[in-house]
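Quick question, first post here. What does this chain look like in 3D?
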Amino acid sequence: MPNSKVTTLGDLRRAVERGDIPRRSVHEEVRQNLIRKLRAGETLFPGIVGYDETVVPQLVNALLSRHNFILLGLRGQAKTRLLRALVTLLDDDIPVMPGCEINDDPLAPICGACRTRVATEGDGTPVAWLPRETRYVEKLATPDVTIADMVGDIDPIKAARSALQLSSELTMHYGLLPRANRGIFAVNELPDLAGKIQVGLFNILQEGDVQIKGYPVRLPLDVLMAFTANPEDYTARGKIITPLKDRIGSEIRTHYPAGRAEGMTITAQEAWLTRHESSLPAEVPAFVAEIVEEIAFQARQDRRIDKRSGVSQRLPISAIENVVSNAERRALITDEPVVVPRVTDIYAALPSITGKFEMEYEGELKGAEAIACELIRAAVANVADGYLGHLETRQVLEWFDLGGSLQLTDSTSAEDLLARTREVQGLTELTQAAGIPADASAPLLASGVDFVLEGLYAMKKIGRDDDRGYHATDTPVRRPAREAVLPDEMSMPAGDGKKKYYN
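> Answer (accepted):
Ran it through. C-alpha cells below.
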C-alpha cells in the first residue's frame, strides 16, 4: 500500500500484516538496505574517494554486524561526510506519531503522551511519515555540552503550564539523543565530551535505553550510534573513558589519499572552480593541479609540521580555488578570454596554505610563510621532474648562462610573457612535454612556459630572485661601482699606503 494511503493506525496495522510496510529496527533497516545495494552493485557512499579498499569494507562489516562504530582519523579525512552518507541506507520514510518529539512508532509508542493518545483514539489515531533526511542528528562534542543537551532533563515550565507534578513523565524535556530515536545519532570529536556525559552514553550503547534525570522511567530507544575522533585523543588517557570504548562495536581508521591522483580527484570534486559571474571559462592545466596536490603530500612528510595535527585535504582544495582566483584577476585586468592558472599563481595562494598546518618548534622559528614557499618549491621540483627530468634542457640553460635573464610576475599578461620568452631557444619545445600543444591559446602557452621556468628553478638548474627574475645559477652578485683607479696607482706595490684593487 502506498504511504499516501496509510493515514491512520488501522491502515498501518493492516499494511504491516500484509507485508507492504516492514517493521524493523534501525540497525536491521540499514543492514537490509545495505545488502540490497551490495547485490545490485550500487555505489554505497557517493563522493567518497580512496576508501574502496580500506575504510569502506570495514564500515560495511560494522553495519552488517549491526554495530555502533567510531571513525578515527586526522582532520580532513571525510569522517563527517561518511557519517552523513549513512542516510542513504535508510528507508525513504517511516510512520511516526504526528507531533511526537521522539518519532514514536505508532504500533509501539514508548512515550507517555503517545501511549495515552493511542489508547484513546485506537485505530483512528493519525499517522505521519518522517523522511529519511530528518532522521540523522549530528552533534559536535564540546566541553560545555551538558547531560541535559544529550539526554534530557526536567522541564519546570512545561509542568507549570500543564499543571502537572514534576514527577510526571509528561514534563520531560528530551535531549538530542531521544530526538534521534528511530534514526542515526552522530557525535563528532567524541573525546571532547566531559567524562560524565560519556558515562551518560553507556546505557544507549549497551542496553539500548536512556534514563532521564529525576525520572524512574527508561526509554528503550532505537538508534544507530556513530562517532568520530582524532586517534591521539581517543587513545590518550583522560580523554576517553575506557568503558565507553569497550561498548563501541567497531573502530575504523580513516586516512589521507594514498596517491596524488586520488587527492586530485577529491580536490576537483570539492573545489569551486567554475566562476559564472566573470563569464570567463577556467582551464586548469594538469601540472598546476598536480603541484597544488603535491604541496599537501610534501607538508604531511615535513618534519617541521606537526604530524599529530595532520594536513587536511582542505589545503589543496582552498589552494586551487585561490590559484584560480589569482588567474581570474589577471585575466580580468589584461582582458584575456580564458582563465588559465600558472605555477606563479600558487605563490599568490599562500594565504590559503599557511593556515592549514600546525608547526613544530623548528617550523615556528622559520615562519609559516617561509615554510609554505619551500613546500611549493619542493612540490614544483617533484612534478617538474616527472615532466622534464628526462628531456634535454641544454639550449635553455645555455641562454641563461650566456647572460640572458627574464623578469616576470604573476600579473604579466600571456602575450607579454610569450613575447619576452620567445628568444629563449628550446623553451617552447619543453612546454609541449608538459602537455601544451603548439597551437594552444596564448594563456595556455604562457602557463606552460611559466611551468618550465619554475620547474628549472625548483630543480636548481637556473636561479630566480625574489621579484621573479630568472637568471643563470652562477650569475655573479653585482657589486657597487668601484672608484676610478689611476694607472700609476695600479702599478704601486701593496703595503705602501695606497688602495689595492682587484678585478
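The longest strand covers residues 223-229.
The chain is about 40% helix and 10% strand.
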